[in-house]
Amino acid sequence: MLELRGVTAGYGRTMVLDDVSIEVPVGGAVAVMGHNGAGKTTLLRVAVGLVPVRTGSVLLDGQDVTPLRPSARVKRGLGYVPQGQQSFAHMTTLENLQLITTARSAIDEVLDTFPALRGLLSRRAGLLSGGQRQQLAIARTLLTRPRMLILDEPTEGIQPNVVTEIEGVISGLTDRGDLSVLLVEQHVGFALRATGSYYVLESGRVTSRGEGGPAAIDAVRAAMAV
Ligand SMILES: Nc1ncnc2c1ncn2[C@@H]1O[C@H](COP(=O)(O)OP(=O)(O)OP(=O)(O)O)[C@@H](O)[C@H]1O
């Protein structure tokens, strides 16, 4: 379980998050939505330890990890897929995966999750489509065997069929019960289908929260229209 408790954080003198509290239960999936500049990425970076908190705390499985560096949080089961489908462009798909492990069984397991990558193992990552690179980025993070997976805008700039595939992967992973997901999304429909609850962030504050599912679309749209 991941919890942000009363977090205030920002850059230099600029405060971006103001007393933000969110909770991701064990095996649950939570979406954070909001307009550009609302502070969504900053919230994820606080969870990972890339942006320090000014006040408040970050708890992982009930333990206070606020003082811990990102690498120590990763060791405790946090996996982060930043925005932008990042990969090592000059390396092949397989080499990108092998940066985490060369164990064939582990690589086979993530390829079962993302079968589209199987036929692309010898292709340079820089030559993959955006959707393929996103799948590679998630697959690479899954190789670290996270218990808490953090995804920043996984559908940004990718085709609808890949969006559906990623939605299926997220549901499949959380159905296992041992992995929790926190994702930031602009795509409200996707976010609510892929997760069980949501938060709306506006100007660094949580302005709305609730259960996910298609029925929540109107409530989220109304919250974001304010
Ligand atoms: N490294 C940084 N240094 C200074 N200000 C930053 C930095 N990163 C983000 N900001 C500012 O913090 C605010 C929140 O940015 P953040 O990226 O968290 O928002 P966001 O909700 O993820 O937006 P988007 O949907 O556009 O990605 C913005 O005003 C942004 O300009």
Automatic annotation (TrEMBL):
Pfam families, per database record: ABC_tran
SUPFAM superfamilies in alphabetical order: P-loop containing nucleoside triphosphate hydrolases
Record key words, sorted: Amino-acid transport, ATP-binding, Nucleotide-binding, Transport
Gene Ontology molecular function terms on file: ATP binding; ATP hydrolysis activity; branched-chain amino acid transmembrane transporter activity
Keyword ATP-binding on entry: yes
Source taxon at top rank: Bacteria
Signal peptide bounds: none
Family membership: Belongs to the ABC transporter superfamily.
Protein name, UniProt field: ATP-binding cassette domain-containing protein
Species whose genome carries this gene: Nocardioides immobilis
